[in-house]
Every structure is written in structure tokens, then in C-alpha cells.
Amino acid sequence: MIRSAGKGTTGAAPTLTTIADANQVQLIWDHVPHALEYEVLRNEERLDVTNGNVYIDASVQPGGQYEYKVQALTPEKTPLNKRWPWTGITAQKIGPDIPASPPGDKSNTGPDGRPLPEDVDPGLVDSGRVIVMNAPVAVPTNNSTEQLETVLKQRQEAINAATDSTVRHQAFIPDAKALAWPCTWSPNTYFGGDNRGFDATSSRNRTQLDAFIDWTRREVRQIKYTGDTRVYSNDGVLQESRNAGTDGMNIYWVPAETTDFQAVIRAEHSVGNPFCTAGAITYDWQGVVYRDGVYTLEGSRYPVPNHGLYVATGLTGWRIGAELLNSGYECITGICGWDNIRARGNGV
Q: Quick check: helix, strand or coil at residue 145?
């Protein structure tokens, strides 16, 4: 078994770690903020494109010599909210708020002048650079017991190097529009929808609530967002726009049960339509997330609108936890009862 690591040639210099036995080579690399996806190359030939942080090449030959390269793709002029979905949303600790940048301090703000999350490097926001990581690999000719034990040990070291995980819950209207009456004054009006399908990285949401787990600090932070609710006339003219705010969205965690390997968290969510006098997008779940990618989350929701629950670690990228459909907009009042939320995932 040969383990090697390379550094990035630009930007924040992330590390690419390779773990090889006679049958395969496992690549594990650092998460790069703003990266749309990662391109994996072997001897300058592309093997795959992925949005995760792990790749296994099982097509190697025992005794082979290879050069691996991972390119973090951050295309120039890509809108910031496509590269970093949390644009303009200030990271919050559970407890005292983290203040935004002082007036006039542009050191940690995006192009729109709004604060970035605390762990975003402003120098990378509009760089348009392709961050490259590379490492040579010599594949062993056979696997001894000692080599296999070393592989397991090095893999555990790689898992331990994962610095963060995120649980993301989105609520969105999949259609381009939805009937606004009787919440509005006229039956000839409609609400603007999000016009999208299930996608963990989409910035078009009614609400988005993230639990950001920092394994090195052994703490959980929440990041929350509510999209504007817009009313249009039948001929498509914008009539009014309101925002419901984020007061009804919260992530809780148990410090005594949160270690450098597991986090016990809970989400509570109740956000109404600012034009309606009753009802709210409502859900509640709790569970455990582990550093190696294992997670178990369970709870319930009002079945409206579409809900997407996703989990990402520094090793795996976004994985689907649950994707739940809208059962009818009248369900926002609770008359449809509760729908179960169950999300389970295995580690890498």
C-alpha cells in the first residue's frame, strides 16, 4: 500500500490524498468553497466528474504507476449564488449571533455588499480559477495483511481529516406559479413559484435551513434563508412582495453529546405565507450525524410544498436524505395531517 498526498497549485491549496492497494486507488480531497464540481483525471485522461469529495478507481493494474489529478471547477462569471448557495446569509451560532462585517468593512462581503458566511475566503469568490490537486500513485503488486491494515488505518485518518458536515432542508414550490386566492384580494392573482426540481444546490427556495457541523470545534451552527413571496396579476405584472422572515426556523444541538465524531441535532420550522392569515410550512426532525458520513434523521412535516432533505460531509458531497412531494396547498393549514420524514445514510 502506498499513500501519497498532493497540494493544490492555486487558491487555498487543498490536499488530495490517495490510498492504494493492489485492486483499487481511493482518492479523497479537501472540499473547495465555491466549487461547482470536481473533475478526476488519471494520466491526464478524464475518469469522471463528481460533486463529491471521494472517488474510487477500480480499473488499475497491480504494479501500475499512475498520476492522478483533481480539478475543482469554479467557472469565471458564474453567479455567486450558484457557486455558494448561502450568499448574503450570515452564519449564526446557536446562542449569541456572529456579527456581520462592520460598516465600510468589505473584507468579508460578496459582490452585492452583503456578508458572506464566516468560513468563506473572500479572495476566492470571484477568482474564476481552477484549483488543481495532483498526486503520483504506485499500485502494489499484491496485498499483504499488513498492507490491508495500513489501508484501513489511512482511510480512518482521511475520515478524521473531514472538517465539516451539513444537513440541509429546503422547502420549495416546483411550479412557476401557484394560485394566490383566497390569501389575496383577487382570484385573478398568483404567487410566483420556484420553478425547479429537487436540487440540493438550488438557490430558489421558499425556505432553506442548514445545520453546519464543525467537527474541529465540536459545535453546530445554523444558516437560514427565506425567499420573498411575490404576488402577480393574471397578466404577469408584479403586484407586491413580502418576506416572512426566519424567526420560525431553528437548529438545536446537544453539546454534551456532540463530539469530534458525532453530532446530535434537531430542526424546528414554522414559517407562514406573509399574505395568508393561517397556516405555515411546518416540519420537525431530529437525529444523529457522524463524521464518516453515517446519519439517521427522523421526524414529520405538513406535506406542503415540496421538501428536500440532504446531507453532505467533507468526504461525500451532497447525498439525498429525503425528497417529499406536495400533497396540496391547502395542507399548509394542517388539515392533511402529518407526513413522516426518514433519512438514513451509510458512511463512505
A: helix
